[in-house]
Amino acid sequence: MAKARKHAQTRAPVATPCAHCPLRSISTFRKFTAEELAFVNAFKSGELALEAGNTIFSEGTNSPHLYTVLSGWAFKYKTLADGRRQVLNFALPGDFIGLQASIFDSIGHSVEALTDVVLCVFPREKLWGLYEKHAGLAFDITWLAAREESVLGEYLTSVGQRRATERVAFVLLHIFQRARQLGLTKGNAITLPITQEHLADTVGFSLVHTNKTLKQLRKTGAFKWTGPTFELVDERGLADLVGLVPEPEAPRPLI
Amino acid sequence: MAKARKHAQTRAPVATPCAHCPLRSISTFRKFTAEELAFVNAFKSGELALEAGNTIFSEGTNSPHLYTVLSGWAFKYKTLADGRRQVLNFALPGDFIGLQASIFDSIGHSVEALTDVVLCVFPREKLWGLYEKHAGLAFDITWLAAREESVLGEYLTSVGQRRATERVAFVLLHIFQRARQLGLTKGNAITLPITQEHLADTVGFSLVHTNKTLKQLRKTGAFKWTGPTFELVDERGLADLVGLVPEPEAPRPLI
DNA sequence: CGTTACCTTGAATCTCCTCAATACACGTGG
DNA sequence: CCACGTGTATTGAGGAGATTCAAGGTAACG
Question: Do A246 and B78 touch (CB under 8 A)?
């Protein structure tokens, strides 16, 4: 590190040293070793701050950078040529953005900031070094990719099989729980930076039908969502509204 | 390798040494270095042959093994408690099965053999060694996980946004193209080991409606699919039926 | 030759979509 | 301060699209 500082090509100091990363204190994230922390800190080449509404990645493009969300919300989506849009997932602090662009030669979805965001920037070219020198971090990246796959599977199942109220309840509950895990909730309330249109494009319904479904769900009193504040009143109740959950499918005996 | 053979605990010789793996000659797969090949061969602990219809993985369970498809077809799916089923993807030769079970502590979907299959078996416990010693192979695993994510994103977009004919055409074309890439086609024909019910559960329609949609699609003459043989008559035509494809979203200029 | 699995079709019903209109909050410029 | 445009939320009405129910049909298999 000291060596790097002496180097001719000094670069602007990274805004947030990884050692002081606010995310490190969250229990969901594993602890880094000192070596890993040093490596990640050297890997990180800067920060990117963007205002809400800006595009972080465009489907089909490439980038020399790989990002991690330090703060704020974003969402990943694909659009068809006539404007139909499918929201794939939401990116919250700690999530990777743009791994596909680094691994393949182009990213399969667009990413847009929902709120003002701050992203940690990593140079794609150094990703290989991470794999060579830090198997633990390489494993973490695979872990993140696998979790992304897992979430997409749940969303696909929801969109393909569940009906309106179940589907909407599922997404709301899922988002809330993810946010809570990151300590983004105040009590059982949270500022949801998404519109009904985002929700509609997530569950695969028209905006109008999503609105009517929300009206129905609100009548149950499981949550309140007027304005940007979402309040989960009855978590168990909302979970029941999701209805049938994937069955753990008992491990059956042979024969 | 020779050392392993001298070892007291000899094990049954692996049916297919990786050096002679029939998949290695397929151009889609990258070439292994000699070291990688040796490692993978040592990593592989055996083969598992299963008849069509058998369950390879059950959602929510775990396994000491990780598999790779050597031959045959399988499909990944999730089921809700009342039996509704969503097919997530199809597993063809070269595909990983059960990565989630190795990375998390349980797998998020079930996997079932569509045809008789032969799987290469790898012990989960040695996966970590792969990450430590072979960054290239570790990267490959991440690559596979990321591709899985990518495919799920496409399916989700299809189910969430496309209408009946587009949706069915998309899945048929996608399956055919994957199979062709693996050299599983004879001319433009292939033996599709799936029923209309599998297709219905993939696109998120009822069996009846899927059948009616197929009837409509058949009228276009883009393909023939009676019995197990699927024949792609007019690929361009079928691609047109898929309709709107994700837009490459031109990188727009600043300001 | 009966059983089973899969495919096909019609009819009635319900879910969800589109169109259209209204309402509200907010920021901007007059 | 008000007029106006914009983005978001809401509601009703009518119709397209998908589901369910029900009934056959065909091929494979024991």
Answer: yes
